[in-house]
Amino acid sequence: MKILAVDSSSKTASVAITEDERVVAEFFMNAGLTHSHTLAPMIDDALKSANIHSKDIDLYAVTNGPGSFTGLRIGVATVKGMAFANNKPCIGISSLEALASNSRVESGLICACIDARCDQVYTALFESKNGNILRITEDSAELISNLTENLKKMKKSIEFVGDGAAECYNRIMAGENTDKYSVLSEYDCYIKAHNVAHLALKRYESGKFCAAEDLKLNYLRVPQAERQLNERLFKIKR
After folding, report:
1. Is residue 199 a contact partner of residue 78, using CB atoms and an 8 Å limit?
2. pTM of the predicted structure, to 2 decimals
3. 85 burial level (CB within 10 Å; 0-12, 13-18, 19+)
4. Is residue 60 exposed (0-12), middle (13-18) or buried (19+ Cβ within 10 Å)?
5. What is the spatial distance between Cα 195 and Cα 237, in angstroms, rounded to a whole number?
6. Which residues of 175-198 are buried (b: 16+ CB within 10 A; e: fewer)?
7. Do 61 and 5 form a contact (C-beta atoms < 8 A)?
8. What distances in angstroms separate CA 219 from CA 108, 175, 196, 222, one per listed residue?
9. Would you tell me how many other CB atoms lie within 10 Å of the CB of residue 48?
10. Rounded Cα gap, residues 101 and 137, in angstroms
């Protein structure tokens, strides 16, 4: 099965083409450029490098949240357009689950953290058992202070991953003298599209896929523009 996977949920962007478990082509960019300028050329380059036409892709996969509102919309809209045009199924993958796949721990907890600003992170907890990563909690938006206090109560080792990982690690280590916590390197804290593809393949084999028009975003929070509008409307009503 040929899968085209896309991630544009944060400041980085990644595109991969896989065939079954094999990575055929992968592109990653962290140049500070907007995804509206980089994503389409990256997809085109990946297809050309793999010598594959978009109509030959069997499944389209994309991180559908949580993360950057603009980035998520660009990624999901791009994948929906390609899947619709080629009449192929697609799958949305949690950005946090894709991040947890970067972990290399054989056993222990993995805390995926994406910077949500306002002293918050999008987060979910996973556990690695003999290299298999299992979800423990659902994706949520949490205050960093609340998250770290809850994690301190857990007895197992915890590895942080994501662009919010360093801040969470520093907070939880403040005043602590323990090797219970660790954080992945900066490069490993970015989503790689090949992980999105591998997760999508497992999901597809379980029958969990959808048509392009049914692919949904998972923001977790109301976008900032909408929050500001609601605040103005609330003040007017008062």
Report:
1. no
2. 0.92
3. exposed
4. buried
5. 47
6. eeeeebbbbbeeeebbbbbbbbbb
7. yes
8. 28, 34, 18, 7
9. 11
10. 15
Measure the CA–CA gap between 170 and 119, rounded to whole angstroms.
Answer: 13
Residue 117 bridge partners (DSSP): 120
Query: Which domains, from first to last, does the chain contain?
Result: 2-94+190-220 (3.30.420.40), 103-189 (3.30.420.40)
Q: Which letter does DSSP use for residue 187 in this model?
A: G
Nearest to 7, CA basis, from 46, 57, 50, 51: 46
pLDDT string in tens for the chain (238-residue length): 999 999 999 999 999 999 999 999 999 999 887 999 999 999 999 999 999 999 999 999 999 999 999 999 999 999 999 999 999 999 999 999 999 999 989 999 999 999 999 999 999 999 999 889 999 999 999 999 999 999 999 999 999 999 999 999 999 999 888 999 999 999 999 999 999 999 999 999 999 999 999 999 999 976 554 544 444 544 555 5
Strands 140-143 and 158-161: unpaired
